[in-house]
């Protein structure tokens, strides 16, 4: 069973794509396009964070009886990425593409080391731990997105 | 106040990996100094003591230094396990490794047994601590991903390499009676193919797809390559020790094909990258993988054409391709990602919202990376040329290697200086 791992890893790859497009626009010096793409990217990231924080993590914490373990680290890293995204938004608001690209470099590493932890460690643990509840947790995440 | 939180608590302090990273480039400079001092004689044969001194300035002082420092940093990320007492552990690895590398080089140059004895004690301590700390973490890994498997194989190979190295040192230091030539073959192969290549592969499985945004490595390769290489190394070693030349040659075909396959796959994935913006570390990955591919093919050629295997230049070319080309380039490129990121990361955690933090590109401007990279490539090509014609190319290669090593060192020191300035100038 790797249902959660597959479902959420696919979202990571989607976010990677949007990140690359935003960076490409910034590199090309196209501020307007960069703003549009970045806005979509930021919203996509936020939706993904919410699915985890509002559906997956509570289910994991309940099943494992542990709210202080890996999910706490993941929530803190989400916050760190939100901060960096806000910094990039600020750079775009000021029209400073060089600053945007400099911050993007760090965001990419933050994102990816977070993804490694989730995809290699947390998601497989969720799939194992949640067992037959996996389907309903994925449905809950889909419902969140539809809201 | 550390609001940025646990990922900060979980990551070791900046000083833990940094001490390795700031030391390593100066071993490239030292290697260049040795080249400049002893000149073309270094390219006479892989067996000359001066060449062995140079080899270990590179493999211990530069490569092992960075690889162990980086492992202490990335274990919490890829394995989810923290190394205990990180500062003390790092000091107990870094200091003996640095002193031991210097002592071993001195020992080869002077031939005096007591230097070998000192080097062995020091290196035994440093690697002993490193192997214990990292193995403890790896075996507690909650999930055995492809990367964990490759890292376990790499660490196992390091154990064999160090064991053989210490025994060989015993031959020089205490006059132990050993089959030195065979053991040196084993030691070199376990060090370069086992420890170095498998560690790079384990890291590449994660780093290449994620940071260059490429498709993933094929699943069978991720799970199968490292164990296959480890088994082939064992089989090859057994045949070599048993004097079964033909069977050993067949096993080494497996090894060379495995290395070539990994290099070719990585080069292919890099052509599929979704991240389109220029990234200087990409250049380092390409140099590294092209060198590995060339080295593996050259190795295959020596198996098919025995006359090649006897030529001293071919063995030197192989060593240069694997050490300076494959390992040196990928390590250099990774340093340019890791060090600015860690500086930024620790600043963000400590200065959170209280000051504007310099970005990674301010900490290390791309133009500086790019120029240093071109000189690195020049140093590599000139060294390969020097293996063929030492009389012309030795000194140009020396100059290029010294410049690129010093420049790497200065680039990294600058990041550290900016980091400390940002911390000092921030409001309390
Ligand atoms: C405790 C650490 C080490 C010690 C004491 C050590 C010692 C030695 C000695 C004494 C030799 C020469 C044997 C001879 O002349 O017959 C040698 C050769 C060699 N070592 Fe090490 N070594 C160590 C670690 C390493 C590591 C980590 C690597 C590579 C990653 C490495 C790569 C090599 C290579 C490639 C050669 C062969 C050079 C040649 O054939 O020209 N060594 N080592």
How many DSSP H or I helices of chain A? 5
Sheet/helix structural class of chain A = mainly alpha
- CATH topology description of chain A: Four Helix Bundle (Hemerythrin (Met), subunit A)
Count of structural domains of chain B: 1
- The topology string of helices and strands of chain A comes to HHHHH
Structural category of chain B is mainly alpha
- The CATH superfamily label of chain A reads nmb1532 protein domain like
How far is the N terminus from the C terminus of chain A? 27 Å
> How does the overall form of chain A come out from the CA principal axes?
elongated
Percentage of residues in DSSP E strands of chain A: under 5%
Helix segment tally of chain B: 15
Oligomer: heterodimer
General description of the model:
The complex is a heterodimer of chains A (147) and B (428). Chain A has 147 residues and is mostly helical. Chain A has a single domain, classed as nmb1532 protein domain like (Four Helix Bundle (Hemerythrin (Met), subunit A)). Chain A contains 5 helices and no strands. The longest helix of chain A is centred in the first third of the chain and has 34 residues. Chain A is elongated, with a radius of gyration of 16 Å. The mean pLDDT of chain A is 87. Chain B is mainly alpha-helical. Chain B has one domain: Cytochrome c oxidase-like, subunit I domain (Cytochrome C Oxidase, Chain A, Up-down Bundle). Chain B is built from 15 helices and no strands. In chain B, α7 runs antiparallel to α8. Chain B is globular. Chain B starts with 5 loop residues before the first helix and ends with a helix. Classes of the chains: A mainly alpha (147), B mainly alpha (428). At the A-B interface, α1, α3 and α4 of A face α1, α7, α12 and α13 of B. Bound molecules: protoporphyrin IX containing FE. The site of protoporphyrin IX containing FE (HEM) has 29 residues of chain B, from α3, α5, α6 and α7.
